[in-house]
Amino acid sequence: MPKIYEYLGLILFFYSNEHEPIHIHAKYQGKESKAEIHMLSGRIQKIVIKDKGTGLDSKKRKEFEEFVNAYAEDIVNKWVDYFVKKKHISPQIINQKVKNVRIISG
Predict the structure, then answer these.
(1) pLDDT of residue 101
(2) What's this model's pTM, rounded to 2 decimal places?
(3) Closest residue by Cα to residue 33 from 54, 3, 6
(4) Which of 82, 84, 87, 93 is the most core-located residue (most Cβ within 10 A)?
């Protein structure tokens, strides 16, 4: 379970046995949601947030959605590096709230 980011208390990670569509999980205080990044012809078409069990609370879910929208291309690149190229991914700690986010949702 490689940790990819730590953002405002959220831990964002891939499970080591993932499947498509490209997605990233977020945990906070034992609750979990995931963001699916749907691609078409190499371009991000939409991002869909799904709750796992009870899911993140509304504040953390919104922070997660904003983060994924801001970092979607980087997440896709890290997915390819980890699952396709079998590279090690070092986690990033991001302490500042993301700004000016263009929401891609479906």
Answers:
(1) 58
(2) 0.91
(3) 54
(4) 82
